[in-house]
Amino acid sequence: MNNHHNSPYKEFAIRFQLLLCKYPHLITTTLSNVFTMRLIGNKTHGDLAEIAIAEFINQYMYDYRSVHVGKDLFRAKEHEEDIQIINEITKDTFPVSLKAYGDGPLQLSTDKKFQMFPTLEKMGAVIEGEESIAKLWADPVFSDFNALNVLPLIYDERKKRCNVLVFDHTLAMQSVARVVYESEGKGRKHPVYRFYDAAGDYVCEVRYGSGTANALQRGLWTHTKNGLKYFFSLTNGWITYEHNPILVKLFSHALLSTTAGHEAALEKLKSDIDAQKNNASLRPF
C-alpha cells in the first residue's frame, strides 16, 4: 500500500509540527498575512498560501527545500500538487497539495477519472466485514488513498483562527468498518458513500462520480469537524490570527511600482525575515 510514497511526507509533517510548536509566532505571522488576503478577494488567499508555505519551508526548515509548482503545469497535471518538497538529506521528493478551506467539508482528492463512486456501486449499498473492506482497499482505484499528501490550512473567519490539520490516511484505512450508500441529503443533489469506523463515527466519504458532476461534487472528501479523530494538528490546535491592513497597502503600492522599488522593498523584507530567525535563535534541529 504505497507506504514508501507516504513516509517522506509523514516525516516532513512531524518536522513541520516540531518547528511550529517551538516557534509558533513564525506560522502565526505567515498565516495572518495569508488570511489578510481575503480582504482583497475570497479566492486570493488560496493561491497566495501556496507561495507563502513554499517560502516558509525554504526560510525556516533547514533540511527541506520547496518549489511552488505553479498553475500552468497544474491544469494539465495528473497529480494535484501545488508545491514540491525536497528532503535535502535523503533527496526524497514528494508533491503536496495545499488546501485553504473553512472549517467543514474538505476535499482530499478530485477523482479525475470518475472511478471511485462506480467502483463502490459495484460492491453494493453496504460494504462491511473484513474481507469486503480489504477488497475495497486492494482495488487500484483506492490504491492512492494512502499517498495523498494534502496540507489543509483550515480557517474559522468568524473567530479569526486557523488550524493546520493533516488527515491520517493510515489510521483511517485501518479503522473503516462499514461503507454505506446514502442518497441525496440536506443541501446535496448527489448521493454519497460514507465511510464509518467500528464505533459508527464518520471517517470520510466518496461523492457522486459521474462525468457530469463538477469537481466539487465528486471525489474523496472528509469533514474537519465530523472526522476530527482522523486528523492530527500541526499547530497543536487552533491559533488566532490578526488581519494585517498594512499588507494590503503594500500590495496596492507594489502594483504601481517598478522593479527598482520592488528590489529595495525585497531587501527590507529579507532583513526582517533574518531578524525573525535570529530572534528565534533558529538553528537546524
Structure description:
This protein has helices at 3-22, 24-36, 44-60, 71-76, 116-123, 130-138, 169-175, 245-254, 259-279, and strands spanning 64-68, 83-87, 93-102, 105-109, 126-128, 150-156, 161-167, 176-182, 192-197, 202-207, 219-223, 231-233, 239-240. The longest helix has 21 residues, at 259-279. The strands form 2 sheets. Strands 1, 2, 3, 6, 7, 12 and 13 form a 7-stranded mixed sheet that branches. A 6-stranded antiparallel sheet has the order 4-11-10-9-8-5. The protein is α+β, with helices and mostly antiparallel strands and 285 residues long. The two termini are 31 Å apart. Helix content is 39%, strand content 25%.
Measured distance between first and last alpha carbons = 31 Å
On the 0 to 100 scale, the average pLDDT is: 87
Radius of gyration: 20 Å
Query: How many individual helices?
Result: 9
Summary of the model, kept short:
It is built from 9 helices and 13 strands.
From the structure above, extract its key features.
seven-stranded mixed β-sheet; 285 residues; six-stranded antiparallel β-sheet; 9 helices
Helices and strands in order, then pairings?
Elements: H1 3-22, H2 24-36, H3 44-60, E1 64-68, H4 71-76, E2 83-87, E3 93-102, E4 105-109, H5 116-123, E5 126-128, H6 130-138, E6 150-156, E7 161-167, H7 169-175, E8 176-182, E9 192-197, E10 202-207, E11 219-223, E12 231-233, E13 239-240, H8 245-254, H9 259-279
Parallel strand pairs: 3-6
Antiparallel strand pairs: 1-2, 2-3, 4-11, 5-8, 6-7, 7-12, 7-13, 8-9, 9-10, 10-11
Helix pairs in contact: 1-2, 2-3
